[in-house]
Amino acid sequence: MLLARALLLLTLAGPAGAEAFTNVAIGERIDPEDLPTLDGGTEPLFSAKAQANVFIFFRPNQEHSTETLKAMADCEAEFKGKPVHWVAIVSSTWDPRDVRKMVTDTGIRMPVVVDQADRLYGKFGLRLHPVVGVADGKFRLLAYEPFMKVNYCDRIRARIQFALQEITAEDVKKVEAPEKATMPGEIAGAALKRRQNLGEMLLRSKQYEKAAAEATAILAKDPKYVPALVLLGDARAGQGNCAEAVASYDAALAIDPANKGGQGGKGACAGGK
Question: Are 46 and 139 in contact (CB under 8 A)?
Answer without folding.
Answer: yes
